Amino acid sequence: MSLRQMEYFLAVVEESSFTRAADCLHVTQPALSHQVKALERAVGGALLERMPRGVRLTAMGRAFLPHAQLAVHSARQAERAARAAAGVAGGELHVATVHAVAVGLLPGIAARWRAVHPGVSLVLREYGSTEALEEQLERGVADVAVGPEPKEWTGPLLTVGREELVIVVPFDDPLAGRGAVRLGELADRDWIRCAMEPVVEGRLVLDRACGTVGFTPRTVLRTEHTSTAVRMAAAGVGIVMAPAHMVRGAVGEDCVLLSLDPPWHRPLAVFSRVRLTGAAAAFADLVVAEQDPHGREGQ
Questions:
Q1: Model confidence at 80, in pLDDT bands (50, 70, 90)?
Q2: 11 in Cβ contact with 24 (< 8 Å)
Q3: Is the Cα torsion angle 287, 290, 296, 299 positive or negative in sign?
């Protein structure tokens, strides 16, 4: 089997159609079908079930899919790494992250990158959870990741600072004049929850933390994105827990941030599947410098 055959297979899966996949790949449909059939002969069985409208994966196809994704992504990553090995003169750097870090931390870093390395464009891939971020990086979708420090990571990892989790309230909230609040004081408040909320030991972090001080948070609104939840809190819908740097990036000064007593922090890291070289190493250095010009943020 060849890498091209796997690329063709992935295109068909992504488009759910041989016709649309052929258009995306700029090849004829017969040529695409021939390559996919050759791949199926190589693996010893059908990977795709041809339907009257579209295609779907067979059991063999579902088992083959993640390995094909890893092979194709790794090949592309290898090409980028080889081109970057001599420096950062040109090309692309693929960066994976979570939404909160993309909104709160990376805009300034990306602007600095463009100023220092104008020949290397950034491709940003955002994920809704740390689990999805780590899984996709393992599959080779990016050269480097920036996000909450993984608990278990076998590749290169550099801790670059800490992010503080804060409570967001509107300006007219009774707590707005305070700098910090104990979690137990928020037992009777309405909460806004986000689908991107971190999970700790199998439980959403807010449920777990509130449970330790004797209450279950009363949820009045659920959102998909943390930035949406923060804007809802600023409007007075409820209160929300979010990373401090993301709040400033999402709504600026339109709300009040309350630190928790005791403070909540989680480490941030730059990590990769392979040794950081060239553009990836330069990007990691820039994150460290931007987070900590004189001492790591939050410490």
A1: low
A2: yes
A3: negative
